Amino acid sequence: MLPTFAPARRLALRRAARVAAAVGFALTATAGPAAAAPISLVKAINTTTADASPTGLTALGGKAYFLAQTSGAPSDLLDDLYVSDGSGAGTTRVAALPHPETSAEQPSTLVTAGGRLYFSHVSTASGVAEVWVSDGTAAGTHALTVHPSSGSIAGGARVVAGSGTSVYVIGTDGPASPASSQDLYRLDTSDPTNALTLLAQGGGSTIQT
Fold first, then answer.
1. Are strands 147-148 and 195-200 parallel, antiparallel or unpaired?
2. Cα(66)–Cα(106) distance, rounded to whole angstroms?
3. Is 22 helix (H, G, I), strand (E, B) or coil?
4. How far apart are alpha carbons 197 and 47 in whole angstroms?
5. In Å, how far are 42, 47, 53 from 23, measured between CA atoms?
6. CA distance linking residue 152 with residue 175, whole number of Å
7. In this structure, are strands 27-30 and 147-148 parallel, antiparallel, or unpaired?
8. What is the pLDDT of residues 63-113, one digit of tens each?
9. Which among 53, 130, 57, 138 is positioned nearest to 95, based on CA atoms?
10. Which of 139, 149, 193, 192 is nearest to 169 (CA)?
């Protein structure tokens, strides 16, 4: 569900390419049902190199969080974490995510659990995806060191869903190969040890999401 923004109107955040190709992908809003209400530009996030392509719009604390491309050459734009309260002035970058030159991976979609945002992201030259968390501030946006109850996530951890205080993660036990296995884990956000509880084993196969 999208957040309710002041003053007393509900804003649905959309991609501007649905309105006019000339403005590229940007953050837009409508004051009512899409079929009846006009759509207006909230903020052109990337005005110098290419489209910002905002994705992963997720509501938390009455604001919308999303990923947007704001740096690099047009052929190599990289996502950062943004927030919006529905106004241009209130649409700002939360955190510039580290993007190693050796990896073309972008952050996963955002999920919420336990009052925080979670996503997976490759932030080191190893190319292995990590679980990241954000409380909506730059200082509170960082990678988590997680501990699987069994098995291994040496090949990376991919956040796929959030519900209540649970984050669901697919962990890969090694580099992609016929022998690698993907297992489903649950992260309890109230557990300070960041333990991953094994829910289902892939047994050498890929878990579909």
1. parallel
2. 13
3. helix
4. 44
5. 12, 9, 11
6. 11
7. unpaired
8. 999 888 775 544 455 678 999 998 888 989 899 888 765 545 566 779 999
9. 138
10. 149
